[in-house]
Specification:
The chain is built from 8 helices and 25 strands. By secondary structure, it is of the alpha+beta class. The strands form 6 sheets. Strands 11-24-25-23-22-19-20-21 form an 8-stranded mixed beta sheet, sandwiched between helices. Strands 3-7-8-6-5-4 form a 6-stranded mixed beta sheet.
C-alpha cells in the first residue's frame, strides 16, 4: 500500500496500524502532538519528549488520532496510573503523568492559547512565558475531588464510564477522581429508572442520586454563606473550588460599598451573593441566568440580600436591552465563551473591570482578543488545577481598560 508524496513514497496508514512516534508537545484537550509522515497526530497517553508506539484510532483529512500502546523511551514525569481503568476509560487524560507535571502541561496549554488566540504577551506584570497553573489547594493529591459524577447504566445490573470518543461503556467498580462512595451509590440505584445515573455530594456531606426532576435538595456552604440547591443544578465540581474561586473573584473585583456589579451566567448565585457582601446594601448586584431551576435556587438562597436583583434571561439577548453602567462585571460563560456580541455589549456598559472565569483556555483566548480590540488589557491571571488527572483547567482573569 503505497502513495506518492512530493519527495518520496510513504506508507498509507489505516485504523489499527501501529506506528512509531516522537511526541513533540502538549495540545489543548488532554492530547499530545506528534507527526507521522508529516501529518499531525493527536496522541493520548503520551508525554512530550517520549518515543512511543501508538495505535491509529481515527483518520481525517487534516490529522490522525492515536493511543500509546508501548513506551519506547519514557519521560521522567511518567508514573504508574493509580486507577485500574486509566487508559481505557474516557474520564481522565493524565493519570500516567506526575501531578506537578500535569500542571506544567496545563500551563503550556494556557500560554499557547492566550498567545495564539488572544495576542497576550504579558500578564501579572511579567512575560506570559512565566505564567504557571497552580494547585487548587495545598493538600491536593489529584484524587477523590469530583463531587458531581455521571455513569452509564449497563443492562440494569451495573454501571460504567464511556471510552474516549466512543459510546462503548467500560464497567467499573470505582472511580478514583470521584468522591468516595459515588460509584457504589450509583450501583445501588442501577435497577431504578433509565438512562445515565448522576450523583452529587454537597459540602455538608449529603450524597444523593439525582432524580428526573433534578432533585433532591442539597445544602452547600461556602465561607459563611449557605445555598439550598437542586442536586442537578450547576455547581463547581471540585470540592475545594467554590471557596477558592469566590476568594479570587472578590480579590480581582475589588468592589466597595455602594458599587454596582453585574454577574452574567450567574448559576445559583455563587459569585453574586459573595460580591453582594462587598457592595453592601448601599450597592447593587444584578445576576443574570437563563436556567430557570438555577435561578430559583438563587432566589431561595439569596432572599436575605436586598441588594441582589435576580433576572432569568438569556444573557446574549438581555444585555442588548439595558442602558445602565456597572463598575465591575463578573463573567462566567459556558465552555464556548462569551463571544464577540456579548463582549461588545460589555465594553458599552462596564466602567472599570471585567472578571472572567473560564473553564476553556481557547475560549478565554478568543474573548481576550475581542476585549483587547475594544481597549481592555488582561492585567491579572490565575490558573487553577481544578480538574486533576484531566486535560481541563480553570482560569480567572482580570481585564481593565488601557
Amino acid at each position: 500500500r503505497k502513495v506518492k508524496s512530493q519527495m518520496t513514497e510513504i506508507d498509507v496508514v489505516k485504523i489499527g496500524d501501529i506506528v512509531d512516534l516522537q511526541i513533540d508537545k502538549v495540545a489543548n484537550g488532554g492530547f499530545c502532538i506528534a507527526r507521522f509522515n508529516g501529518q499531525v497526530v493527536f496522541v493520548r497517553h503520551g508525554i512530550p519528549g517520549e518515543t512511543v508506539k501508538a495505535e491509529i484510532t481515527d483518520i481525517s483529512k487534516k490529522f490522525l488520532r492515536a493511543d500509546v500502546v508501548e513506551v519506547v523511551s519514557g519521560s521522567e514525569h511518567r508514573v504508574d496510573a493509580p486507577c485500574t481503568y486509566a487508559g481505557v476509560c474516557g474520564g481522565c487524560d493524565w493519570q500516567h503523568v506526575s501531578l506537578s507535571h500535569q500542571r506544567s502541561l496545563k500551563s503550556e496549554v494556557v500560554r499557547e492559547q492566550l498567545a495564539h488566540l488572544g495576542g497576550i504577551t504579558h500578564v501579572n506584570g511579567k512575560p506570559l512565558a512565566e505564567f504557571e497553573v497552580i494547585a487548587l489547594s495545598p493538600n491536593e493529591d489529584g484524587l477523590r475531588w469530583r463531587t458531581r459524577n455521571r455513569y452509564s447504566r449497563i443492562g440494569g445490573v451495573s454501571v460504567g464510564m464511556k471510552m474516549p470518543r466512543s459510546h462503548t461503556v467500560i464497567e467499573i467498580d470505582d472511580c478514583l477522581i470521584a468522591v468516595e462512595g459515588s460509584v457504589q451509590l450509583a450501583q445501588d440505584k442501577v435497577h431504578l429508572g433509565q438512562g445515565d445515573i448522576s450523583t452529587a455530594q454537597s459540602s455538608t456531606g449529603q450524597h444523593v442520586v439525582v432524580d428526573q426532576r433534578g432533585g433532591p435538595w442539597l445544602d452547600e456552604t461556602v465561607g459563611d454563606r449557605s445555598w439550598r440547591i437542586h442536586a442537578g443544578s450547576f455547581w463547581q465540581v471540585h470540592k475545594d473550588a467554590p471557596k477558592v474561586f469566590v476568594d479570587t473573584v472578590r480579590r480581582f473585583a475589588n468592589l466597595k460599598p455602594g458599587d454596582k456589579a453585574l454577574d452574567l451566567y450567574a448559576g445559583a448565585g455563587l459569585f453574586a451573593a459573595s460580591i453582594a457582601a462587598d457592595v453592601t446594601e448601599k450597592g447593587e448586584v444584578v445576576a443574570v441566568e437563563s436556567v430557570i431551576d438555577s435561578m430559583r435556587d438563587a432566589r431561595r438562597s439569596c432572599s436575605d440580600l436586598p441588594q441582589m436583583d435576580l433576572i432569568t434571561a438569556d444573557v446574549s439577548k438581555w444585555i442588548t436591552q439595558i442602558d445602565e453602567d456597572f463598575e465591575v462585571v463578573i463573567l462566567d460563560p459556558p465552555r464556548a465563551g462569551a463571544g464577540l456580541d456579548v463582549i461588545t455589549e460589555l465594553n458599552r456598559i462596564t466602567k472599570r473591570a471585567i472578571v472572567y472565569v473560564a473553564c476553556e483556555p481557547s475560549a478565554l483566548g478568543r474573548d481576550a482578543k475581542y476585549l483587547s480590540d475594544a481597549g481592555w488589557s488582561m492585567t491579572q491571571l490565575v490558573g487553577l488545577d481544578a480538574f486533576p488527572m484531566t486535560g481541563h483547567v480553570e482560569c480567572i482573569a482580570l481585564f481593565e481598560r488601557f
